[in-house]
Amino acid sequence: MSFTKPERVINEGDTVILYITINNMHAIEVKSHTTNKHGQKVEYVHQTAYGALKVQSLIGKEYGTKIHLPKGYAFILQMNPELWTMSLPHRTQILYTPDISMILMQLEIQPSSVIIEAGTGSGSLSHYFLRAIYGKGHLYTFDFHESRVDQAREEFQKHGFGNFVTAQHRDVVSDGFTDDLNGKADAIFLDLPAPYKAIDHVVKALKPSGGRFCAFSPCIEQTQETCLQLEKYGFLEIHTIEILQSEHIVREKNIPVMDLSFVKQKREDTESKLPKRDEKRPQLPTRKILTTLNTPIQQGHTGYLTFATFLRI
Amino acid sequence: MDDTIKVGQYIIVQRQNFTKLHKFSALDSTVTLGKEMVELKNIAGQNFFQTFKMKLIASGKKRLHELEICDNATNLKDILTSIESGSDNRNILDDGKSQSLSYEEIINMRQTLSDSKEIIGTIIANSNSFNQKTEFSQEKYIKKKEKKYFEFIQVRKPTLRLLTEIFYRQDPEKALGLRMDSLSQLISYSGVNSMGNYLIYESGSSGLVPAAFLNSMGDHGDARLVHLHPGNFPQMQAVYALNLTDHHLKRCSSVNIYSVLRQYYQGIEENVETLSQTESENEKMDIDESSRKRKLENDDTEDDNKPPKRQNFEEDENNEQQNEVPISDENSSNTLTDREEKKRKWQLDNDEAIRLFKEKFDSLTIVAKEDPFPIVKELLPFIHNGRPVVIFHACKEVLMECYTSLKNHNLLINVRLFSNFMRDYQVLPMRTHPAIQLQGNSGWLLVGYTVNHGITLN
């Protein structure tokens, strides 16, 4: 239930983030018992690099609290779409915060929006949509993979979004969206192998006055075909962009500083000052600087985002 | 929702790729688009996104147009289908002789012919190199001419997306270089939605940040926003441009950061006195700067000779106006009761903000030209534990230092520093490539989460 709004205290059933270090975070569901591999009900204990955590002991604690582990400590954070995207079980390739944020901005998502999404995938983007429309709007999400849909539906329910989402198993390229959605959507998002084959369905499902559209494609050929189809159906403001976010790791570094000027003068007592062969060279003085390093492996490509507006005049 | 254009609303006037934010303040007002002046009276009551044709009614230094509703804007590409084209540019010479019409003839034609299709058709017919151009470059040529002679405009409804684009394109500095990708991520990381209380400190983003928050908060839930700013008046241009209802706008309390914190720590009585009588050094500086800035912004408006106002904490009607917006007289008739009325308004805003300060907030967002660390340090006590903090700054070094200070004081966890790369693509069959130019400055985002180091478990 922990996604929908800011909560103060951890409740049973919440999915929370156990934050140990910036590179060591675990998503855990807060419950007192779990079943072991023999099918027996046992106390739920979560293992970390700093020892075991009795998950039940989290219930009632305030979010953001420091908790002690046998060999260290950790913090508990409330789950949100950003942290969920970093920790969710991948069933497909997923979209990350930079692309997702742009999709929400470009689709002009507001709390009252009715959104159609295909496919659901692992539900990374769906959670952002659901946070944005919580309380008033609705998300209709489709995937052609049945067990993925079931799993996503279960997660939405668990995370408190059940009333604002309809997850359905359907191949929208061949079958279109469900008929009850004709003329209903403010915004439609497609992440499909062939989004260009579903544009007629998009046109049908957008509101009588029109709406915004986005297709995500890692490949330029698909993007090109999508743009052609959008043009054919009279979409306006067709616009393709790419976004890459870089993380900068802030570091204080000590830079050795050499002084080469002394070589211009003759040394006074050459004999005694010459370092012996095995003698260590004196340490150079250093200068402290504050700098940033990029992560050694950087995201070089995610996908092309194509946006467009449809108007019925 | 009612989607018709009404007097008093903000509108976006679009002519091809050119867009302009404008307040449709009166039925008989005009908007200036480069050398064209356009009467707006015919747009009232029409739907947003409606296309209008500009019809010349008077020419002079500025050409005056009236607007006619138009259902089928001519597609100038049609001209192309009837014209043959060359296969490459081997016969094209840049000798300045390919156009046989003189400058005067073209100017003259512009006044006699009203249709851009006719004008461009004539220009093409008199160009002896046009037929030798390849089909692609003919298209480019027409696009270029179209830009100049295009006589259709559309009236768009201002949305956060369009406003962010317009502000960044006009002058990135006007919104602190807050590019759309950075703003979109700032919204995500701050976790704003229709539930919860949010705290922002903003200076110099033309109201884009509070506008983004109000947009995400909507008007149905119980979300509340406290918008701290350093000057006499909040910058609210982008907020007003969204044409929100009063009820929706009331979810945001815009308060002066010094005033509200002083009232929080020192109580209300002495506060009122200090506001009107003495000002702290800090405030003085800010006021001087903001009035100087407003002076600069207003330099080319008709009433730039208004004395900079010194009364504290009034609503600023001036601030929301763009240069071209005719400024009403409301300001000058500042009677005593008016002033008291407004004083009550800021006092109410302060009271509401302090109520929320006591409840504490669900996220903190700082978008400012100032060094953010001293601000974040003072505001963190008002944020619940385990909540996101997002800081945007145009300078990386400032955020690097802020990062180090936050770490040294153990104030946040999961602290990350981001920047963004974004580029547009031209997508055409066999001619797809990244745009030749891109906007190089995304600004920098620092994000982290508040924690409580004190309490222990078990």
From TrEMBL, chain A:
**Gene3D superfamilies in the record:** 3.10.330.20, Vaccinia Virus protein VP39
Under catalytic activity, the entry for this protein gives:
an adenosine in mRNA + S-adenosyl-L-methionine = an N(1)-methyladenosine in mRNA + S-adenosyl-L-homocysteine + H(+)
GO MF term (any one): tRNA (adenine(58)-N1)-methyltransferase activity
UniProtKB keywords? Methyltransferase, Nucleus, S-adenosyl-L-methionine, Transferase, tRNA processing
Output the SUPFAM superfamilies linked to this UniProt entry.
S-adenosyl-L-methionine-dependent methyltransferases (SSF53335)
Q: What class of enzyme is it?
A: transferase
Where do the annotations place S-adenosyl-L-methionine binding?
Answer: S122, G123, S124, L125, D143, D171, D191
Name a single GO cellular component: tRNA (m1A) methyltransferase complex
Taxonomic superkingdom: Eukaryota
Instruction: Please state the protein's primary subcellular location.
Output: nucleus
Record domain tRNA (adenine(58)-N(1))-methyltransferase catalytic subunit TRM61 C-terminal: where: 72-309
Protein name (record) = tRNA (adenine(58)-N(1))-methyltransferase
TrEMBL record, chain B:
Q: Where is the composition biased (Basic and acidic residues)?
A: 281-291, 304-313
Q: What is this protein called in UniProt?
A: tRNA (adenine(58)-N(1))-methyltransferase non-catalytic subunit TRM6
Recorded GO cellular component terms are: nucleus; tRNA (m1A) methyltransferase complex
**Source organism:** Polypedilum vanderplanki (Sleeping chironomid midge)
Q: Where does it live in the cell?
A: Nucleus
UniProt signal peptide = none
Keyword tRNA processing annotated: yes
**Matching Gene3D superfamilies, A to Z?**
Vaccinia Virus protein VP39
Recorded hits in InterPro entries, A to Z, give: SAM-dependent_MTases_sf, TRM6
User: What GO biological process terms are annotated to this protein in UniProt?
Assistant: tRNA methylation
The entry's keywords: Nucleus, tRNA processing
Lineage, top ranks: Eukaryota, Metazoa, Ecdysozoa, Arthropoda, Hexapoda
UniProt lists the family membership as follows:
Belongs to the TRM6/GCD10 family.
- One Pfam annotation, family name? Gcd10p
